[in-house]
Structure prediction request, 362 residues.
Amino acid sequence: MPSSKLPPVSLTDEERKTLLRWSRRRTTAQALALRSRIVLRCAEGGSNSEVAAEFGVARHTVAKWRSRFLSDGVEGLSDEPRPGAPRSITDERVEAVITATLEQSPPNQDTQWSTRSMAAATGMSQSAVSRIWRAFGLKPHQVQTWKLSRDPQFVEKVRDVVGLYLDPPDNAIVLCVDEKSQMQAVDRTAPILPIMPTTPARMTHDYVRHGTTSLFAALNLATGSVITQHHRRHRHQEFLKFLKAIDASTPAELDLHLVCDNYATHKTPTIKNWLLQHPRFHVHFTPTSASWLNLVERWFGELTNRKLRRSAHRSITELEADVEKWITAWNANPKPYVWTKTADHILDTLAAYCQRINDSGH
Prediction:
C-alpha cells in the first residue's frame, strides 16, 4: 500500500494516452519511456519503494519523477536545460562568416581564407570559424582543377563515344583503350611498417627509382575484363603490337569498337594502314582534354589505388609481374563500369558551366 504521506497521482485521459504512447513507441528515448512507466505505475497506487523495485531503479528516482509530474505534468518528464554559458555567436555573425568566405578575399592578399585570417577579420576565435565552416561544408583550402576541351568536334565526339556506351552495337565488342605510361618501379629506403591499432601503415617519404614501364590496356565495356601488355616504351610500334594482341584475344567474327584518346601514336600512317587492313576495327576518338570520357581511366584509378600506391618494387620486371598478378585476379572476377549520363546531359552541364564563367567576368 502506498504511504498516506505520498501525494496521489491522478491522470486525465489525455495524460494517460500521452504516457502510454511514450512508454510504447520504439522511437521514444528510453529515459522518457521509463519515466512514463514510472508515473503510470504511481497512478495505479504503487509506492515509491514498490515502483523502484519493479523497474530496478533507485527509490529517489521514482520520488523525483513523481514530484516532477505532480508539479509540471507530462512536460515535467523532459530533461531540463543543462547549465552552461549562453550562446555568444549570433545568427548574424555566422552569416557574416559565410558571406565573407563565399564572396570576399582576405585583406592580406592571400588567395584563400584560413581560420586565422577569418578569425582576425570577424573577431571570432579560430575554433569558432572552424566549427562554422564544418557545419556548412566550406573548405576554402581545397581547390579542384578542370579544363575545357577546345576540340572543334567536341560535340560530335561526345555523342559518338557516349552513344557507344549507352547503346553498344550488336555483334561487336566495345573496348576502352589507353596506356598508363611512366609506371615507376620504386622501392622505399626503409621497410613499410604495417598497420597497428590506432596507427596507420607507415612508409618513408623518400624512395629509390628502378626504372619505368608502360601498361597498355583495353577494358571490355560489357564484361569489365581487360586485355593488357607491358612495354618499356609507348611508341606507335608498341601500340601496333597491342592492337595485334587485341585482334588475337577476341572472337574473329565480332567487330571491335575502340575508344581511344588523341595521342599521336594512335594516328601514325603505320597504324592507319594496319587498321585499313583489319576492317573489323573501328576507332572512336575522345575529344582533346577529355580523358574522363574513356572508361579505362577509371580502371587505371583502381590499379593505382589498390596496387601501385603502397607497393614497393626493386626492378621493372618485379613491378610488371606484380601488376600482372593483380590483373589476373581482377579478370577472375571483373566488374564492369556502367555509364549513365547521356550526351545531352553532359553537354547541358558544360554549357551551364561555361555560362557561369562568362557571367563571372573572367
About this structure: The longest helix spans residues 343-360. The beta strands are 172-188, 207-220, 226-231, 255-260, 281-285.
